[in-house]
Amino acid sequence: MQDLGVALIGHAFMGRVHSHAWRSVSAVFGLSLEPRMTIVAGTDRARTEAAAARLGWQHATDNWQQAVHRDDVQVVDICSPGDSHAEIAIAALEAGKHVLCEKPLANTVAEAEAMVAAARRARERGVRSMVGFTYRRTPALALAREMVAEGRIGRVLQVRASYLQDWLHDPQAPFTWRLDRARAGSGALGDIGSHITDLAEHLIGDRLDGVSGQTATFVDSRPVPGAPEGTRGEVTVDDAAVFTARFAGGALGVFEATRFAAGRKNALRIELNGTDGSLAFDFESMNELWFYDANEPNTTAGYRRIVVTEADHPYLAAWWPPGHGLGYEHGFTHQARDFVEAIAAGTDPEPGFEAGLHVQRVLAAVEASAANESRYTRIEPEQSLQNP
Amino acid sequence: MQDLGVALIGHAFMGRVHSHAWRSVSAVFGLSLEPRMTIVAGTDRARTEAAAARLGWQHATDNWQQAVHRDDVQVVDICSPGDSHAEIAIAALEAGKHVLCEKPLANTVAEAEAMVAAARRARERGVRSMVGFTYRRTPALALAREMVAEGRIGRVLQVRASYLQDWLHDPQAPFTWRLDRARAGSGALGDIGSHITDLAEHLIGDRLDGVSGQTATFVDSRPVPGAPEGTRGEVTVDDAAVFTARFAGGALGVFEATRFAAGRKNALRIELNGTDGSLAFDFESMNELWFYDANEPNTTAGYRRIVVTEADHPYLAAWWPPGHGLGYEHGFTHQARDFVEAIAAGTDPEPGFEAGLHVQRVLAAVEASAANESRYTRIEPEQSLQNP
Amino acid sequence: MQDLGVALIGHAFMGRVHSHAWRSVSAVFGLSLEPRMTIVAGTDRARTEAAAARLGWQHATDNWQQAVHRDDVQVVDICSPGDSHAEIAIAALEAGKHVLCEKPLANTVAEAEAMVAAARRARERGVRSMVGFTYRRTPALALAREMVAEGRIGRVLQVRASYLQDWLHDPQAPFTWRLDRARAGSGALGDIGSHITDLAEHLIGDRLDGVSGQTATFVDSRPVPGAPEGTRGEVTVDDAAVFTARFAGGALGVFEATRFAAGRKNALRIELNGTDGSLAFDFESMNELWFYDANEPNTTAGYRRIVVTEADHPYLAAWWPPGHGLGYEHGFTHQARDFVEAIAAGTDPEPGFEAGLHVQRVLAAVEASAANESRYTRIEPEQSLQNP
Amino acid sequence: MQDLGVALIGHAFMGRVHSHAWRSVSAVFGLSLEPRMTIVAGTDRARTEAAAARLGWQHATDNWQQAVHRDDVQVVDICSPGDSHAEIAIAALEAGKHVLCEKPLANTVAEAEAMVAAARRARERGVRSMVGFTYRRTPALALAREMVAEGRIGRVLQVRASYLQDWLHDPQAPFTWRLDRARAGSGALGDIGSHITDLAEHLIGDRLDGVSGQTATFVDSRPVPGAPEGTRGEVTVDDAAVFTARFAGGALGVFEATRFAAGRKNALRIELNGTDGSLAFDFESMNELWFYDANEPNTTAGYRRIVVTEADHPYLAAWWPPGHGLGYEHGFTHQARDFVEAIAAGTDPEPGFEAGLHVQRVLAAVEASAANESRYTRIEPEQSLQNP
User: What are the structural domains of chain B?
Assistant: First the structure.
């Protein structure tokens, strides 16, 4: 089998998860190409070398350009902060490397547009690109997508989606780069609001027409860890963002992203109500999909808890017997598998950079609305959200 | 013990529930005044007499004025449709009768203002008035109110409230007066959105500063039951309404009221996130309050399910042992009790008509915002939401 | 409509609940006979009179014989402790009164046999009798019964039933008559184990063949409230009882009754597994029935939460709209309704005293097994569990 | 770092899971010794080689002896059916290899005794052995163990444990070796009943004194897949097993293992009730532990859902942020880590073969009781369940 050399850029949380996926994907799924964990790039040489040793990468570098341009690298996997995405992705694509880029695709619409342009040019040459809206590949959500597509809940009329975390609810929680607009682009909105935006559109197969938003920053500054006593970092991003929305097809949506929901650890929740039924999901119980079939007789209808661990469920045939649930990182393994197989097949993987750009436009529209008395703000449609 | 003659106006769903409350309240709680089920008023003589016989009212009339002006009536309990509230309530107050009026207080802000004026004049003469935001007296929500007031979740920063029903999700569901703006004022917004608006403000003890809303009518007309084949009633109210909101104290809110959430029967849900914890409730599990105490150590913190059936919980000492839960109508029994005791004590019951008017202003602001590109719309503060 | 005079014996917890049912049943359901709350009997004159005034009984007495023999009494409703059941019920039946007797039917098999004999003699004369296994009339459980009978879960192979309470888990909880074998017959076994025994047999429509049991008394003595400091009452009943069982048709059962399950307030739980599906119930969420349809395709099968509040569900047409749940006492209202209607129709209500005797035999077999190294102990079949 | 060569015996379900653990453990935890996936042994050469290639083992053999005796192998990991455990484990221990053996330790008490004897001899020479009761290392259950040990629920008085699966509920489900007593030893009892037996004892820190059991085989024969039409395999093991139990310290237990609980996929459930609180767990929601603190005031006490994903929770520091849950196979990674670290530290890992033998004695006692009218059957205590 042919090798596929991977260069990983970044080895923090996301880098660790991606490493886990690259290490496991072939054994779990059996692939058409054999991914090799060739090199990891970081900013600090010593720490990057330690990460390489621990995570199983053959080489380490503190120079991402070097990693990107190696001959034995065919895939560049970008897990560095958002402000570096555009430069790295464009360089990699131009060097003919397939690119998997973490979300949000970029920190600004302009960057994302440049990335899409590069991806389109590269596509002409058979070079693939993908943005890491990984939750699409959580089996329960992949099943939801299938069920909507099969018409199991009819025409979707309402969507309520929230992504609730709580790591900032304590006013003394420390400052991090994620609270700095220059590095992170936005706060809860971009970090986790991007996920529910992509998911909602993906699940119902329709795009947002416009949004009306509000954002809030509850705590203005926070202590900087490691800095002299009393040093505080200014919080320049939103702590929470809420928006109502209209889909092109008429569905009504409510969205919320927050880091202040005390007790909600990673509650990515989405509920779809259609003319023939409903679907509901909460990532804190990620192996379950709730389905209400409105065509059942009244007396026996009810939200049913589908334990999404059957061999017939998306991705599950490769894993364990029913009831032996999957965890967070499995979505990344599925993503790695689908990306590799798309490369092998010479097709464009989903979601492409266009989807990443589109989400960026939604985030920008939410911010624009919030800055303009919450006025309804339309989102410019991409020519195509799907790959052409 | 002194009698308290009650006249009930209306004997449909709400009238039945109120009858149940008047029948039971004295035996359950032991009251300072003894309510008598004196007379029920309806629009059809025969049906009203049948209702009186069935529900236990001594007299029946198809002339509400007659009921209101009887000497043996001290309380007028208004359960008729919203477009009749103002006239009846004002007449009753002017006749010196204590008035309990179902929500929403009226169909328009102007009517509600007139009712408040009448209530204030009557209050000078010791005549009491109350609006039926009954969910405040669901024990789990009464407990939530106490816990917020005691500071158990600190300063509340976020509120998410939804009231989800599904009786219209089928496009063939029949037309009713509730879908006619002239009778009902508005749709899901006024009928059930009013409840979550009042509850959110009541629970956190703060008022809404402004809202940004969207409404939707998914099905424009529906078959009229009993009418000739093909007759359709035009739906002139919202099927669903969503709004984001800001509270005067800075908290951020998301609200949704809908009749299209297939599978959600009466899911009044509210979650409050504070600096020190969270509270969550769903009326479909009405005997439970979920509490997250953020001051617990990380390792043992978790949302706890308080089964609100202990003798120390609000209203529970009068009922059954722990775990032997209450049902929907018990909130009305609690309301009747508190109203009677306020009359006996010569104090003003909560919530007064001012609270009803305020909610009316919020509903009007949501509609105004929805009609104006969702622009943020401020709500004029009442001079006092509490009774003076 | 003809009156039906009721005499209530006992006005503690059960007496209060039954009073609530008698007060409401006619208004809720509309009955063929009109129950009158004629007289309540207690042991203390003053307290009984106070109870009568509060609960709405026309007369009071401290002499139950007097109540039972009144001409204006047609129904005797026995809510006194178990050691008084036999004497009162037999006297009432012989006096030609219809008898509703709380469970357990008696404290011993011998007493229960005498009661069944009296009931059979009375039945000849058109006098009705019923034992208060009220949970059969919880709508979710009545629905479960219907679904099993319709074959929705196929042949039932396994039953797991538990009734978990926690009011004794604290070793300092006070002594009560319920811990005295002479008054109560047994402990958790008879008090709550009797309910799950009856329910399991009722739901699957089969009788227990035999049991293998163990019982435990974790706290030997407890402080007597109101007695001089240091006075302790000896606990002569079980704190918890567990047994495995075999049904006549081959199904396997596991049962547990306990007052020591800290945090479980009134968790009557029962799950049935059949060849075609499963049903599960927990009284702490009494408006829900969980149903697994094994004939659904693998990919969309799941336990569904039926919110048992639809007009088509048992007893629900008389109550509130979907999602507006019922509470604990409603089962007693349903029981009163079915008892009155059976009297009116001249039919025997279910469950009759035979069912009460049968449960008594099961309890005795559990105790016999526990006393005999848990040896499997067969239960003598009644000639008929159903009324003849 | 020093290498640790591993030989895996068996590459079916368990072999795959163990492979996943060996592949990941070092990257996740950073270990004191570096495990190498040296060789996998199977019964069919071609299939074993394919498995080696897929799962990442350097060599393959159809001769387990060869694998066991290689110089570059220090660890033998036994994942073959139960009837092969004793021979392989004893040979490996005698060859000086550390042994990790899947549960149940053996198919009979006699085999298990021989294995313990071998393990004890080997232990003298510093050779380590461990039995795979992996669920002990599910973080939520490891946390439960810590909380019991810290006294958070006081003295444990009751245990209810069940392991519910449904893969046999369909009478047409195919025959497998797991239904053949000669290969599998017993049915649900040994396969999954062994897990809850070990867990219950482990969690409360006490051993079972005796049991009273019943077993059932609901379907006597099943179609043999791949065999000529009409060939049926005789089911010679239990489909379901239930037993009540007494612990040495007086606690009362109820246990159930079944493969017929339609809709329950892998519902390993355990609840402990103590004098000061309760703990509850269900593997279908494996990242959650429910805790009831009986020392909380009545008004705010409730079962709390601890999402066991905090860095302070057992094993979690090595994984993902809060709320990003783990899956089934992670327990095996934890097991591999603890086994390697015990080898490195020269200490005996838990649970040792003694624990495996003890569980075997419990299973045998359940079967003996079931065969003897469910009579209470005592379990001979090991001299030590803990390693000496």
Answer: 3-133 (3.40.50.720), 135-378 (3.30.360.10)
